[in-house]
Amino acid sequence: MRLLTLNTHAWHEENQLEKISQLADFINKQQFDVIAMQEVNQLAAEEAVAVPDLGRYYNADPETVIRKNNYAYVLLQQLQYDYHWTWIPVHSASRRTLDEGLAILSKTPLTAHMHGHVSQLQDYNNSKTRKILAVQTEQAGQPLWLVNGHFGWWNDEIEPFRPQWDAAEQLLEPYQEQLMFFLGDFNNVAEIRGEGYDYMMKQIWHDTYTAAAVKDAGHTVVKSIAGWEGNARNLRIDYIYANRPVQVQSSHVALNGENGAVVSDHFGVMAVVDI
């Protein structure tokens, strides 16, 4: 199974339409089975997409409206494979002009879902409000769950990471009997001891990067970006986890200018897993 996670920084990028096309080209070439994207945005005032035009859209939230410039929807129009997909809004952004959310694309049908707040904040107009999105599907005849999340920082004064992770664990506990992959932007650096990465690894999770037979340096942020202002280090903060040991053929940084064009302020992570 081929997986990709990417914080898209949607509609904040220069030459955004070109970068969407570059991402589509990369996906078409790599033929991922699963794609998880964070910061998947749409203009809140844009016209809604008619339901018959949504393709293989899975409605995980009856109140969600997909608008014509929804980043995932625009991307899907350029993909060769007709993916099953879903998207939920998490909070508003850019002075309430954008809906920011989470999207999951899957080659196999989505059959069930779960989503919920992991932040104590549940104010849609506060950018520190956080959710996770989970969908059930099947790969190689095996049912499994795909989870997508975008978390806060370890030392955030308002919404620190640890209680968010505890909330995510509680939400996911009823589904842990099945194989589960958790993809996303976790905003916690793998190389820093005693913080978020170590806290996650004390739980049931297995990092596909460390398990991979073939891997690169793994860094997905290499400059100063929003949320990591002044950063001058190479950071590994985007991950693909499994809730049990799995055979991982490879883990590579994607969309970094060497393995695909740079399309966001984050690079992506791609993994090939045997299930």
TrEMBL record:
It comes from the Bacteria. Keywords: Hydrolase. This is Exodeoxyribonuclease III. One of its GO terms (molecular function) is hydrolase activity. CDD domains: RgfB-like (cd09079). The keyword Cell membrane does not apply. It comes from Paenibacillus bovis. Residues 20-266 form the Endonuclease/exonuclease/phosphatase domain.
